[in-house]
Write a structure and sequence with these properties.
InterPro entries: 3-ktacl-CoA_syn (IPR012392), ACP_syn_III_C (IPR013747), FAE1_typ3_polyketide_synth (IPR013601), Thiolase-like (IPR016039)
Pfam families: ACP_syn_III_C, FAE1_CUT1_RppA
Number of domains: 1
Helix content: 40-55%
Catalytic activity: a very-long-chain acyl-CoA + malonyl-CoA + H(+) = a very-long-chain 3-oxoacyl-CoA + CO2 + CoA
Mean pLDDT: 89
Largest sheet: 9 strands, mixed
Distance between the termini: 103 Å
Family: Belongs to the thiolase-like superfamily. Chalcone/stilbene synthases family.
Keywords: Acyltransferase, Signal, Transferase
CATH superfamily: Thiolase/Chalcone synthase
Shape: globular
Number of strands: 11
Number of helices: 15
Strand order of the largest sheet: 3-2-4-5-1-6-11-10-9
Length: about 475
């Protein structure tokens, strides 16, 4: 009888033990953001209108048509006068940058942002278990990650990942790496460092598809401290709910639309092709198709399916009856599962396009527009400046859900959903200017100062000195 009772107890308790272990393991697989720190360069690196004009005039390969193109691009870019450039531009060496220029640009960011982040969180460099660094257009020896480890004297057994060539969507790839490590190891700290080196990649030729990059990309970066420690849940800022990556590199049209290459004169630059909007839209649609069922409530998915079916039925009936009906696409309401939209500041057209596709309001798009105006496109770190704007504006409340969407060369679209763990509103990189945003107008003064270019005659035009 005792043996039988033991068997019954085993049969009942063992499945419960397995269930408890599964639940406990899943809890340790969570990915939290403990804190993050965006980099703000010093004021002597700001690109105002007059200095931008001087930089453009220094390029001896530009003519009147290129001036007109640049003026149109800058005026319509959505970028203001407070963005930052590498120091070598202010030294007048953009045509001949040195190897050290790229390294110093990154080290200035590393030492400022990582140092502030670790000091604020009280985490020692020796406590970091995982380091992921992504800087797409600078590969050095030793690696940038090795330079960080050397500067902060990190542990010998730290897991290190150094990513290059991943483009503007690289920060979510870095987050995904940390997330996957968290699934197999408990009680870890992961430091993600995301930026871009502009110093060796400033284009000094006259190819329009490549000088456009000079108008959009600006200096910046962000350090993000992640953890899966259960004991720190109450201190964390965000919890990762899901992350989806879409890569269209197998399609030649997508692969070629955003690529680093040399122009006809052998000058290295970053080519932004005319097929870029189409490639971005296709990648976004495929990405949303996968992440939508994970982030929206079942009632919204059912509503969308029913409305889509009814519209198709009505269109079919109209065509059979000879009425020809109008084709209207059923729209899914992302706001049923998302409270805030953190969009990559790839440019005004990118922000507008996402706004149309997701049926977003100007309030939803404001963080991305203001970030583009204040900091420009800082590549993979752009998302975190947008997130910082939301936080500085006291928009983020406990339980809110934030959808991040980023694009990058390859061509890639990566997205993820964060849940706000506690009410947020601390000071960050926006502390000295957030009260000035949004301004009455985001129009920059380039047209007012250089609009006379459009009235010039190519036959008589002389480059101003």
């Amino acid at each position: 009888m005792d043996v039988l009772m033991l068997v019954y107890a085993f049969l009942i308790l063992y499945p419960l033990l397995l269930l408890w272990r599964w639940v406990d393991a899943k809890r340790d697989q969570e990915c939290y953001i403990l804190d993050y720190e965006c980099f703000k360069p010093t004021d002597d690196r700001k690109l105002d209108t007059e200095f931008c004009g001087e930089v453009i005039k220094r390029n001896r390969h530009l003519g009147l048509n290129e001036y007109k193109f640049l003026l149109k691009a800058i005026v319509s870019s959505g970028i203001g006068e407070q963005t930052y450039a590498p120091r070598m531009v202010f030294a007048g060496r953009e045509e001949n940058p040195t190897y050290e220029d790229g390294i110093l640009e990154m080290e200035e960011f590393f030492k400022d942002s990582i140092g502030k982040l670790l000091a604020r969180t009280g985490v020692s460099p020796q406590e970091i278990d995982v380091l992921v660094v992504n800087v797409s257009m600078l590969a050095v020896m030793p690696s940038l990650s090795a330079r960080i480890i050397n500067h902060y004297q990190m542990r010998e057994d730290i897991k290190v990942y150094n990513l290059t060539g991943m483009g503007c969507s690289a920060s979510l790839i870095s987050i995904n790496i940390a997330q996957n490590i968290f699934k197999t190891h408990k009680n870890l700290y992961a430091l993600v460092v995301t930026s871009e080196s502009l110093s060796p990649n400033w284009y000094s030729g006259n190819d329009r598809s490549m000088i456009l990059a000079n108008c959009l990309f600006r200096s910046g970066g962000c350090a993000i401290l992640l953890t899966n420690k259960k004991a720190l849940q109450h201190r964390t800022m965000f919890k990762l709910k899901c992350l989806v990556r879409t890569h269209h590199g197998a399609r030649d049209e997508s692969y070629d639309c955003c690529i680093q290459k040399e122009d006809d004169q052998g000058r290295l630059g970053f080519h932004l092709g005319k097929t870029l909007p189409k490639a971005a839209t296709r990648a976004l649609v495929d990405n949303l198709r996968e992440i939508t069922p994970r982030i929206l409530p079942i009632r919204e998915l059912l509503r969308f399916m029913i409305v889509s079916f009814i519209k198709k039925w009505n269109q079919g009936s109209s065509s059979k009856g000879g009425g020809g009906g109008t084709s209207t696409r059923a729209a899914i309401n992302f706001k049923t599962g998302v409270d805030h939209f953190c969009i990559h500041t790839g440019g005004k057209a990118v922000i507008d396009g996402i706004g149309v596709n997701l049926d977003l309001s100007e309030y939803d798009l404001e963080p991305a527009r203001m970030t583009l105006h204040r900091f420009g496109n800082t590549s993979a770190s752009s998302l975190w400046y947008v997130l910082g704007y939301m936080e500085a504006k006291m928009r983020l409340k406990k339980g809110d859900r934030i959808l991040m969407i980023s694009f990058g060369a390859g061509f890639k679209c990566n997205s993820c959903l964060w849940e706000v763990v506690r009410d947020l509103g601390d000071c960050n990189v926006w502390r000295d200017c957030v009260d000035d945003y949004p301004p009455k107008t985001i129009a920059n003064p380039f047209m007012e100062k250089y609009g006379w270019i459009n009235d010039e005659d190519p036959n008589t035009f002389v480059i101003p000195r």
